[in-house]
Amino acid sequence: MSAVNISLQPRRIDPSVDLEIRAIVEGRAGGETCSTDLASGPWNFDTVPGYGPGASMGDVIPTGSPRQGELPAEYRTASADELDARILAAKAALGDRVVVLGHFYQREEVVRHADYVGDSFQLANAALEHPDAEAIVFCGVHFMAETADLLSRPEQAVILPNLAAGCSMADMADIDQVEDAWEQLEDVYGDLSAPDADGLVPVIPVTYMNSSAAIKGFVGRHGGIVCTSSNARTVLEWAFARGRRVLFFPDQHLGRNTAKAMGVPLEQMPMWNPRKPLGGSTEEQLLDARVILWHGFCSVHRRFSVDQIAAARAEHPGVRVIVHPECPMEVVDAADESGSTDYIRKAIEAATEPTTFAIGTEVNLVQRLAAQHPQHEIFCLDPVVCPCSTMYRIHPGYLAWVLEALVDGEVLNRITVPGDVADPARVALERMLAAKPPAAPAAHWEQAS
Ligand code: SF4
């Protein structure tokens, strides 16, 4: 474990990551960014295939991913102050007819216009509190807008200001690959809907909220359930009460970290690589499996490393290291705590004494928390400023564009989940809402053959 060449300074106090990146690129500030293209407008990447600059820039984007058309020039060339004024004016004109939602990882320049700021599920629930709003403008990524559409009334339009704001992790579990995996598992386990003598089916599919509506629908059709990073353990316990094993997608790290904390041995968590027969495992491994982990990951959270934690501890004795469970297992193990974005936020809010925090999650949230809690030293574990590529695609220019169109009676960039997908996807979400932690820890994998 080496701390060499990693310098971590609690230097970020302005909540704007954009301003910091621009200062770095223009040489007005020290530090490093993963892409100097982040200082450009995101519209420069709307016509180019790929996730664009940021943490996912090396990931392969699936063919057929939604593309954003050209943003009108007036929004590309407007100053930040002009865009702020236009957004405020449009929101004032629309009043209660619109709700603007901003994800924790969204840039500060957009979040300041949000009526609600939270994680994806909190925001979908916030939309539910406004059944009379005609439009829900979701400043997040595509799967979040789909979830809001699933939970909102049919008359409400859910709008994603930039259609290129996908999610590289969600894209790693493609519905055709998942259907194919299910067929292969049927060859190994037999009828996947048939319970054994203990009343357990061979496998329960569990998908992370960060997945397409098509995947949530698949899970709903096959007796499975959705989870968030806050309730993953409760959901796995729900699944183990109904099945011998779990197929968990798309994030291998959340699946592994959660199951490991529950006592599932690593050797009973084979990976499913959709490009390999039987996912790259043997039939024996699959028969012995308790959790089959889909080969997906978040490129933001995969950047965090054990070396960064060692550097933080060396430079800041007593530092409290909290990371997101989408980080690799070694990083979660080396941290003091791991938890969802909401957990991280609440842990900082609950600290009564001035504390130094090193946080392993998306930099926009970390920098905002640092600005909100000046009594603490809060810094991102990753010394390179590298935001989520797809959250970055939402810029105030797109927000102004969709809001002004609404003022003129036009709905742009509406996200709609077809009914045949929406109905089973809602079933999977409802199972999650109904899942409760068991009175005593479930441990049937210890008894199961
Ligand atoms: S941070 Fe990771 S999981 Fe979240 S939207 Fe970005 S790529 Fe997807």
From TrEMBL:
Enzyme class: transferase
Residues noted as binding iminosuccinate in the record, renumbered to the chain: 103, 120, 208-210, 229, 324-326, 341
Requisite cofactors: [4Fe-4S] cluster
Pathway: Cofactor biosynthesis; NAD(+) biosynthesis; quinolinate from iminoaspartate: step 1/1
Keywords: 4Fe-4S, Cytoplasm, Iron, Iron-sulfur, Metal-binding, Pyridine nucleotide biosynthesis, Transferase
Chain residues that bind [4Fe-4S] cluster: 167, 298, 388
InterPro entries: NadA (IPR003473), NadA_sf (IPR036094), Quinolinate_synth_A_type3 (IPR023515)
UniProt cross-references to SUPFAM superfamilies, sorted A to Z: NadA-like (SSF142754)
Cellular compartments annotated: Cytoplasm
Descriptive protein name: Quinolinate synthase
Organism encoding this protein: Microbacterium immunditiarum
